[in-house]
Design brief:
The chain has 105 residues and is an all-beta fold. Helix content is 0%, strand content 54%. The chain contains no helices and seven strands. A seven-stranded antiparallel beta sheet has the order 1-2-3-4-5-6-7, with no helix packed on it. The model has no long low-confidence stretch (mean pLDDT 93).
């Protein structure tokens, strides 16, 4: 979601992005994303959660991705983490909010 214009949204899955996140019981994670035409990208770090937040701290990064956490009816919703995305495809990413919805099948 574009921070400057919340009606501007991008569905990364619809663009062909795929990924996995493995959360280990020792608080470590490994995330791999693949975008068509580019090699896979893997990042590692630590993860933590509380009753209403979920946080990923990437190794070597000074910032973190902190999501609001909501669980119910076999759906996990993570919303509001600060991110960037090049909405206008000009080579410069704009501030964005990252939202993820996972549904148990």
């Amino acid at each position: 979601v574009n921070v400057a214009n919340s009606s501007e949204r991008v569905d990364l899955v619809a663009l062909g992005l795929t990924g996995t996140v493995n959360l280990n019981d020792n608080g470590q994670y490994v995330a791999t994303t693949e975008e068509p035409g580019f090699p896979p990208e893997t990042v590692t770090g630590t993860w933590s959660y509380s009753a209403d937040t979920f946080t990923l701290q990437e190794t070597g990064s000074s910032g973190d991705a902190t999501f609001d956490l909501n669980v119910g009816n076999d759906v996990l919703t993570l919303t509001g983490a600060d991110s960037e995305f090049d909405f206008d495809d000009d080579g410069t990413p704009e501030p964005a909010k990252w939202n993820i919805t996972l549904e148990r099948q």
